[in-house]
Amino acid sequence: MSPAPRNRSYSHKNHKRSRHSLSLSPSTPPRTRSPPPSKRSCRPLPSQKDAYTSTSTSHAPKKTTSSLPPPEKQKPNYAPTGLLAAETNTVANTSIVLKYHEPPDSRLPPPSQPYLLYIFKADALLSTLPLHERSCWLFGREKVVADVPIEHPSCSKQHAVLQFRFVVKKDEWGEKKAGVGLYVLDLDSSNGSWLNGERVEGRRYVEVRHKDVLRWGSSEREYVVLVPPKEKEKEGK
């Protein structure tokens, strides 16, 4: 005996309704059209080398303070500081530093030129110094180092120097003549040194001749340089 057929309530109408209900269900989004194909550009293709360099620089790590080079170390300075010169120029058993030392061309004048220095105050002659006996004379208020002490308050402790030097000169015809001459040097004094009424430039040798007059600072004393004539000149007269 064959089995009884199952009661199916399926119909073509119900099938259409179910498809229509599935298509309108809110859970399924509506279909969208795919975008149209892009138009091909007529421009040339980019260079691979440029593309590589651009990508490599864009991905390069940024420099930070840790990647910067270290600061340059300070190099040793071997320039003279003046401390050694000050130590060698210091007077023994004192803290006084000499502001002047004699140059290599320092000489004594010949015996035929006995330089003399006459010190006047107003019209009175105070003393006379035989300059030819020494190659250098230091003037100043520092009695420990000064060869000729100056008591006037306008003068510096180490004021000026009278120095004999061996110098080669040319005359008006271009011929060289060598000899020892007397020069004054101001040691950067506060109130200056004066030669025949004109201020002497600091730290510069200026020649002093026969009958020249020197003054230091605001002192009223005058220092007159005299060179006695030679014996041949006396005989000629």
Count of helix runs: 4
Globally, the shape reads elongated
Structural class: alpha+beta
* Overall pLDDT level: 80
* Residue share in helix: 10-25%
Strand order of the largest sheet: 2-1-11-10-7-8
The percentage of residues in β strands lies in 25-35%
Descriptive keywords:
alpha+beta; 5-stranded mixed beta sheet; 11 strands
Question: How would you sum up this structure, described in words?
Answer:
- The chain has 237 residues and is of the alpha+beta class.
- Helix content is 15%, strand content 25%.
- It contains four helices and eleven strands.
- The strands form two sheets. The chain has a six-stranded antiparallel β-sheet with strand order 2-1-11-10-7-8, with no helix packed on it.
- The longest helix has 12 residues.
- The termini are far apart.
- About 3% of the residues have low confidence.
Topology (elements, then pairings):
Layout: H1 12-23, H2 48-58, H3 83-88, E1 116-121, E2 124-130, E3 136-140, E4 148-149, E5 160-170, E6 176-186, E7 193-195, E8 198-199, E9 206-208, E10 213-216, E11 221-226, H4 231-236
Parallel strand pairs: 3-4
Antiparallel strand pairs: 1-2, 1-11, 3-5, 5-6, 6-9, 7-8, 7-10, 10-11
